[in-house]
């Protein structure tokens, strides 16, 4: 059941950047193509541009290619996508309604919990009717001001607010003439009279501009009249009479904060209630979506009896360090992009590029066997080699004649992939699944008649996954490597059963 106090999905074009990992998650949910269809207007936009004004002489590309020149198809079945929240949410809502109870205009008033579950008092905002819901767990995705986090008394760590902007939506038919052929994701203006950031909504006549706001200097929201905003936009363009029709305004605050705990009993924090970070790098919403993906399979495993309740402790162990590392990188990105309104006193020197942060973060918890907890959460260089705790490598293969990615295999069960000489692993997976009552799908990768997945020419499954030809990797339902065997062993069935028992926290 989803309880949402607003009457409908978002109407404001924000949270646009969906990184490669998030698009992989949408792909496994069968939604990638629908998301791309919803995002068609911005399909050709890339890069971060900086100018004095749109008609001025000073301009440079801060980032010209979000993928940093990488051929993304070699490391993923998907690619990043610009899809604003107002276009994305209806796609997600349509799918969610197929199996979920979605209640808009409904507010959580209070809740209590005990060892048996959560009792929540709910109110319909339209009728005022109140009623009680009993549930096994509560996931609070209730934003940066999170009433649930406050009621639980969970504190936050970090410097707090970094800068403030007013997001202004507007229409201008002539603006595209001055933008020209530059299909950027965001364009920063440095001229003091028009300092801000321009984001295209449709590359035609709908736009968003972020204008710096300084409440610490006494500026109020009321100071940002339509006239002031229009004048600011015209100064940014460098054309005093360009047509501007203001259609909306919303304040936003860029902060760096991470909750000190992601869980209190049967209540979990996810998304902005768990972490806040600047929008630079488009990490915020992606980190939240990946929180939910990590927590979902663990809740399912506990509720279905696959796992012990301690598995839920690994949610915080895995996701909180990622939020700390990612928020630091997002803050550094704000420095590198010289985000309007941000005047940092120092700099964090994190060399990892955006693709590395998006795809290469690692988990170290009881739900991973054989990982390397001493390694950094985000490596300096792009590394996806099948290490336990990392996102499983992507590889194009053929199954029953159809070309798929190995990533397409992961979502609803554990998956064991074995190299061409690892036939014994299929039997081991079957025995482990039967003994523990846990779904495990096993695939043999190779070109023989009894192999399940045929790699493309010159592809080396074992090298890509860091094993020998008779090795294997066990992949969790969220697509992360739980364990890796470098070669087949005579006790493969017992070893795999013990690994599953450990990963699922079955004492």
From TrEMBL:
UniProt domain FAD-binding: residue ranges: 1-327
Keywords recorded for this protein, A-Z: FAD, Flavoprotein
Positions of the UniProt region annotated as Disordered: 328-350
SUPFAM superfamilies from the UniProt entry: FAD/NAD(P)-binding domain
Segments of skewed composition (Basic and acidic residues): 336-350
Domain of life: Bacteria
Necessary cofactors: FAD
Pfam families: FAD_binding_3, Rng_hyd_C
InterPro entries found in the cross-reference section: FAD-bd, FAD/NAD-bd_sf, RIFMO-like
PANTHER family reported for this sequence: BINDING MONOOXYGENASE, PUTATIVE (JCVI)-RELATED, TRK SYSTEM POTASSIUM UPTAKE PROTEIN
Protein name: FAD-binding domain-containing protein
Species this chain originates from: Streptomyces djakartensis
